[in-house]
């Protein structure tokens, strides 16, 4: 329960920013604007989806279905993590930057609002992903 309360600061903070700046509406506007704005919005949504899917694979599939408890400190030597960690890092950073650029260039939001909206959207996503219960090492070794 304590962990869920910690995640709430990301969910509430990110949710307030995303709601106040109406990021959902701005993304919908971009999706329906022909040309580069639509392609950029689709790429943003694709990268956010890829980020969530990689997190789900790391947090759910590996420990629960494959029985592997990832050693994140030694990710370079892990056969699973040596590919997934760079992919996750790339999807997070490129998705965030593309969302920021898209919001700043093709919506009513100015640069500071676009930064806040991008941070809020990703904070909300990280907060929600952080609610996924992860089995601890002791329960996997039984």
Can you walk through the features of this model?
- This protein has 142 residues and is mostly helical.
- It has six helices and no strands.
- The longest helix has 30 residues, at 36-65.
- The two termini are 24 Å apart.
Itemize the secondary structure elements and their pairings.
Blueprint: H1 2-20, H2 23-31, H3 36-65, H4 81-106, H5 111-129, H6 137-141
Helix pairs in contact: 1-5, 2-3, 3-4, 4-5
Key descriptive features of the protein:
mainly alpha, globular, single chain, about 140 residues
Biggest pleated-sheet summary: none
Count of distinct strands? 0
State mean pLDDT (0 to 100 scale): 93
User: Quick one: overall form?
Assistant: globular
- Given helix and strand content, the structural type is mainly alpha
Helix content: over 70%
| pLDDT < 50 runs, ≥5 residues | none
Straight-line N-to-C gap: 24 Å
Number of helices: 6
Order of helices and strands: HHHHHH
Looking at how many chains there are and whether they match, the oligomeric state comes to single chain
Instruction: Please report which band the strand proportion falls in: under 5%, 5-15%, 15-25%, 25-35%, 35-45% or over 45%.
Output: under 5%
Radius of gyration over all CA atoms, rounded? 17 Å
User: Total domains, how many?
Assistant: 1
